[in-house]
Amino acid sequence: MTVYDDMIVADGSFEREQYGWGEKIGQIRLIVAPDFRRSGLGSALARLLYVIANNHDVARINVRMLRPQAAARDIFRRLGFREEFILPDHVRDLEGNLQDLVLMRCNLSMLCDGNLETNATGKG
Nearest CA to 60 among 30, 105, 102? Predict the structure, then answer.
């Protein structure tokens, strides 16, 4: 969580399935307040969650977002995620409009050749 002037401006989480068919799958969730977008805060938080996910022995990480969230998709692409599925008109946005849901996935085992730190730090 990131706080500015006693207001939460960004928050994220990493969740790992604990049992069954999904036990090696994690999910990252991330939100940044509108006034703080395009400041690098989302990228920094995404990188931190990515490293946390790697430290929890998961094979894959999933993220979900609405199609119009192009900046968020760019952040996760830079970390090695790729779009896997698009579910047309699957969810409603804050205005009540139907939006496509995009599922992006990163296979950590493909990145364990030394690129993980490079991708996570944004350097390289």
Answer: 105
Cα angle for residues 92, 37, 67 (degrees, 5° grid): 35
Residues of the chain with pLDDT > 70: what percent?
87
Distance CA 49, CA 106 (A): 13
d(CA 42, CA 25): 22
Residue 106 contacts residue 61 (beta carbons within 8 Å): yes
Q: What are the tens digits of pLDDT across the range 19-61?
A: 777 778 999 999 999 899 889 898 899 889 888 888 888 889 9
d(CA 81, CA 90): 21
Question: Domain count of the chain?
Answer: 1
Q: Which residues pair with 12 in a beta bridge?
A: 30
For residue 109, the enclosing domain spans 2-121
Q: Report pLDDT for 57.
A: 81
Section 81-102 average pLDDT: 95
Distance CA 61, CA 8 (A): 25
- How far is the C-alpha of 117 from the C-alpha of 37, rounded, in Å? 24
